[in-house]
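Good day; I would like, with your permission, to put a structural problem before you. What I wish to show you is a protein chain and, alongside it, a tokenised description of its three-dimensional fold. I would ask you to consider whether the tokens describe a fold that such a sequence might reasonably adopt. You will find the record immediately after this paragraph:
***
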Amino acid sequence: MPYSYAMPVNTERNSRPLGGVLNTAVHLGHPFGDSLVRPGEALLVDGPLACGKTTLLRSFAERASESGYLTITATCSPSERDLPFGVVSQLARGAWKSPGGPPEVPGLPDILRGAGDPVDRAGIARLCHRLCTSLIDHAEHTPLLLAVDDVRHSDPASAAFLLQLVRRLDSARIAAVFTDDLSLSSSLPLRYELLRAQHLRRIGLGPLSPGQVAEVVVAELGETARRHVGDILAATGGNRLLLHTLLSDYREYGEARQTGYGQSFLSCLHRNEPIFLDVVRALAVVGSALPAADLAWLTGHEPEPISQVLAALTGAGLMDEGAFRQETARLSVLNDMPAQARRTLHQRAARLLHDQGRPAATIARHLVRAGQIPDSWSAEVLLEVAEQVAVGEEASIAVDLLEQSFEQCPHEERRAALRAKLAEAEWKINPSTATRHHAPLYGAVRAGRLGLPDSVTLLMQLLWKGGLSEVEGLLAHLRADPAATDQLHAIEAALTCTYPWLAERRAAPPHHGGAAATRAAAWPRAGTVLADVLTGGQTHDTVRRAEEVLRELQLGHDPACHEQAGLFALLALVYGGRNDLASAWCEGALGETGGGPHVPMRQAVLSAARSEIALRRGDLAEAAEQSRAALTHASPGAWGVAIGLPLGALILACTRMGRHEEAGFHVAQTVPNAMFKSSYGLHYLYARGHYFLAAGRHQAALADFLLCGELLTDWGLSSGCDPVPWRIGAAEAWLAQGNHDQARILVYQQLSRPHTDGARARGQSLRLLAATSSAKRRPQLLNEAVGLFTEQEDKYELARTLWDLSQAYHALGEKKQARRTMRRAWHVAKMCDAASLYEEWLPADDQGHATGPTPKSDTAIERLTHSERRVASLAAMGYTNREIAGKLYVTASTVEQHLTRVFRKLDIKHREQLPTELYADRMELA
């Protein structure tokens, strides 16, 4: 293609700059006059790869031919460097074979055909002399331009000819133009001769400047493409070939493509020495820049020429200090590599990065892509790498690595350890997949081939999946193992959290769960905290210990049991009424490191914990959403017996939202029988009881609630924090059947507990106690419950209690107070999506009367100042001006002034018309 845009060029004669800018108007006309190259002179076009040297050379040749010169050209190639007279053969076709060319040199055709005898050094010199003489003599009649591209790749015999010709140029009507890259070292005598020649002119080419790139981009793509100049410059480095191809890709496809940009990048490598391709392939495999010494180890070349190659690639704009400018280029290099060469480089890269202490995930990726684990890698190193990878979000890579290692390992004991790590890694992706390893691992435990930490991890997995027969056998083995004595208390505590009937109560050993805990110790220690909460209630110490476990998990100190350990620690906070802390851990540190698509079980567990927290705050829509997310990240089969936690939350949320059909669908799902023998089954039974209660099946509901209590009593957990408030549920079921006496008994039992269940359970008890008390006493009990639920931010229970309070006021004849409280109850129920409540309290036809007109637009509320919004939010909840003044520490007059401005901005006349959206702002001040 014609050279269509200007190039920055430095011209030199004997290394002295001549200055100026060379563009396509290069003159070689006759007479030579003021042209850049004249007969009797040589021109060296120097510059890095793909910067326009060949294009400029062709421009010289074309203009010379147009002016009547005999133009002979040759292109040197690294692959033809060992072919004697390879360049001369190209020149011969252009000179001696052309019409009107010089007479044929005797002996040359035989040599070029390879038919003659081998030529020694003296013979080469004689032949070169004849060739030079023939050309010089012919040039007396017809001027001659000799153009040789990439002269450094010329074969020695051809270089000898060119060397002789250059020495004799000053007495001939011959002009010679050569291209080369002087940034690369070469021992060719021709180069030295060119550089010291008196009649040499030199042009230095380089990448385009940012301004020139901008001009080309605008010229090719239009003015609107100017905003992309920065990205295009970064992708091409000003390299002309890459720029031209990238613009073509953008014009036709809108992005860089391997068949365009990528192929151009590859062509620059293939037309140079093999070391270029070797270095760039190594960089493509590693995926990041490396020093020359590391690349030397990967490629087998010496560091010095590698440094020159890196400098040449950077100077040409092809790469940026060893880094690819475009991922398309890297992928093109990888796809161009032979499979075996790529596998070998991955093996070498893995060893190099491991010896340098680089991240385990990076090392594992290389080992997986190598296809086969090298024999030089020991099983201990592989286990170390796989274990580190499994801590983070690279469980799938750990699985691939361990599978390869397992298949290649001939030793039974090492195979057992590898299988255990493989089960751990697969567990993080899908516990159902990991179950295929349980039977062989159980056999390895009985045969004494599996270590204690791996045996404890296997126990955790069996507990989750509900393999009770294997659990009992493994427990018997661990209880009989003297080496397991220090861990047995923690293991028994963890059993208390899952299968309490299997646990044996043991005295805690000193310093259990300290810094010397084993690799899998986070799970049993988290279980110890939760067991202490279940047996003795929440204390400052249990809160501290639960947060210590969560902090360790955040830092990745528990590669094996992150999911279960995190769930235990979060539930310890939730059961003890510290929803604020549990929520902060879920949404903060744990949420940030909670895994992604590569660690679905971790995300599933976090979602299940969030759903339980949302339920206890009365955020029903959030609870339903998080429950569904938990069952999406991991299938019901993957949850095992723990399915009771997210499924129970989903059933309860749907029931309270009035979605009884959906709740019934989830109740009808098949669940593992072992779930009902685990603590997770309590959540399911409690939720199902409320579903039955809403469906009018009061006896069935009562049975589920009472079964929760029986199980907790049988398991010895009746004195601590109840995972679910079963007494409250049972009391509601008795009240639904009209049995106030039995309901009162259960309420008093709940109130007599030593504050193990916290303020929320007390508020629920007070609400039910009011239902069984005299009309005069009810407001006092219910107002106390309102305060507790407001403090706990439990909107669902707050709405129910406010409704009961409105009815209590109505019974006492306090109509105005009853209406205000009823409106507040309806607002709160609406805010927490409790359709089962607000649709029952107020028919659909009357809802507009209760809520009043809504603002004309969402911006109406946004026009309120911060102070006005605070006051309006409390007013929307039903508080009087005096009550609002007390909460905000202002005067009642100030409150009245704020409300006057609020009514004017929202275009309403009464506080009953305040929009429900305001309630969300003031839950914490209610």
In short: The chain has a mean pLDDT of 81.
